Structure formats: C-alpha cells, structure tokens
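Lab meeting prep.
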Amino acid sequence: MRVLLFLVVCMSVCASVSGQIVVDHECTNLSAIPSSAIENAKAQLHVAYEHTSHGSQIITGMTGLEGFAGSLFDWNNGPSTGALDIDDRFSGGTDLGNSDWPNLTRTYLDTPANSDVNVIIWSWCGQVSWATESDINTYLSAMTTLESEYPGVQFVYMTGHLDGTGLTGNLHIRNQQIRDYCNTNNKVLFDFADIETYDPGGVYYGDKHPTDGCNYDYDGNGTTEQSGDPAVPTGGDRNWAMDWQDAHTEGVDWFDCSPAHTQPLNGNLKAYAAWWLWARLAGWSGPSPGENAVQDRCWAIYE
C-alpha cells in the first residue's frame, strides 16, 4: 500500500527524473530558472532534509533568499499554498555520521503522516574528510537500497564540505568516489563541495586548498591558514567570498545571512543551487544550450 501511495503522489515528480541530475557550481544562476519551474516545485515536492550545522547552510540561505527576493521563494515546514514544503531536520537533528541514518529514514517514511514526502536528502558534517573507500561504499549502497525500497521517493546524494586539504587530500578523493558513482548510475547529486570551489564569476579555487569557510591559499605556500573563526583567513591567505562581497553591492548582488562556518555568499549560492535542484526534480529540464554561460551568478530580478 505504501508503494502504491507513493507512486500516485510522486508520478509527475519521478517520471521527470529519468536520468542523472548534478547540481554544482554551474547551477547557481538563479535567473536561469523560469518562475514557472519554481512554482511547479512548490506544488509538487514534499522534501525531508536531515543535517547538522554544515547542512544548515542550505536552509539559512533559502530563508535569507525568501526575505530578500520575495514570496516566489517561500518555503515552510508543512504543506502551505504557494510555499515549498520542507520537513527540516526530520529525524531529530543528525547527519550521515549517524550509522543508523538508513533506519531513521525508514521509520520516517513508514509513518502514515509522512506519506506525502517524495524527496529525501541527508547531508554530511565533516565525516567525508576521514572516511575510507569502504565507508563511502557503505553510504552509496545504503542509498541505493533505500531507492529500491521506496521507488516513489527521490533520494538526493551529497558530497562533503571542503576542508583545505586540496586535490590530493582524502576529502577530494572520497568526494570524487561519490561523484563517479552518481555519474555511472544516473543518480541525483547535490555537489556541496563543488559549489564551495568557485566564486559566482566562475573563478576556480580548487587548486588553492579552499576551505568550507571560503578561505584559500593566496600566498602559495601550500596550506590555507585561518583564525579561530573558520570563515576568516589569516597570514598571507584570503577569502574569495569576502573579496567578492566587497566588490559587489549588498542587497542588490547578494544578501546578508549567517550560514554556519562560512560567509553569506556561500549561503546565497547554496540557496540558488537548492532551488535549481527543486526545479529539476519537479520536471524542469534545465536551461537551453548557451543560456547559462559563465557570468556573475548573483540575484537577477524576474522580469
């Protein structure tokens, strides 16, 4: 009965997700998403999202965007006309570091009151930094098993946040393991780390030991130094988000918010990418070729 109910509720959503969806730094151009696609997402999706502090960057950004850009980007916990339904921290406040996350998901989805939920997302905290290949395989296998058990639910995979160890560090290797699996098996991936690797103009920092706070190795000594505040660099290093914010107008090009461990701009970009994800899951095919060229992917008012 559970499967049949989900098939009915999610038919339009799941039918549209026939192949791979990767949401990364190229999916932060909010103005490329038609307002109709955003409205469709709000009408069709019922999302359950579990996370701790790093994952909260998405929610903080979305809340700030709602206040900055208006009711088109409304969301709340519970079905409401004109708002996206997100059950935020649905299992009580944990992340993929909890080995029981698959069973917590099952318990949640098997509860009749949650029968409308058709998207599940779990985020990492810092666990990918020290995860082994086997650890990540366990995560990928558990996600695939849940997909087979709940065919009416779209499960979204996620990479771990940056940690300053660069392209040869364990984090990058394990994140690439997740990406490769999603590429090979046509999964839906929210590439958390990739979004932290580029500024809105498409400038790449991945080879400069970037951190989750947007600090990077400016002086070229092979490490990224930061103060007690992880979002503030020290020594001869810099912060790409702070630099971009200083060069652009607050309240016009970006909005202030307080995402955990990082700068407001990172929260902005996570929110833009999240709405790109919701629109794609609800059937939007993405922009036409050339429509999403590299540019300053800051807020643009809908005409």
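Slide two material, second protein:
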Amino acid sequence: MPQIIPIRDLKNTSEISSMCHAHSEPIFITKNGYGDMVVMSMETYEKSLFLADVEKKLAEAEEAITKGEIRDAKNALSDLRKKYEL
C-alpha cells in the first residue's frame, strides 16, 4: 500500500529515508491535500528505470515481430558463418 505523507513531514529526513528503504516503494508527498512530489530510494528508482527499459525493449521486439522484421536464428547464424568464414 502506498505511503502518503504531508509535505510538513519532510523535516524528518532520516525517518523518510528509513520508510523508503523499508517498503521499497515510493512515498507520495501531498501539499494542501493534493499530490505534489514522490520520494523513493535509489534502489527503487533504478529498479523502476530498469523495468521501464525492459518493457520498452519488449514492445519494440513485439512490433518487429508484427512487422515481420525478424530472421530465423539458424539462417542468421549460417549467414554469419559464411560472412566470416567460420
């Protein structure tokens, strides 16, 4: 469940840091009752970036398959062997 805290609680940075690492998820900061910022640990941030990159690459691969822009692995390896005389 997401953690939501008011902006005035940002004064206690050590506690917020502990919360970020303990829950491994972002903490949503509100200002005047509305969403304002998101705080997360570096580990969670890097994991989010990694997952976004994987999802992007999977989408590109699926699009290439749909367009028929793929080659059979045996044929591709055979062509490489011929090209480099292996």
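Talking points for slide two:
The helical segments are 13-23, 42-67, 73-83.
Strands lie at 3-6, 27-31, 34-39.
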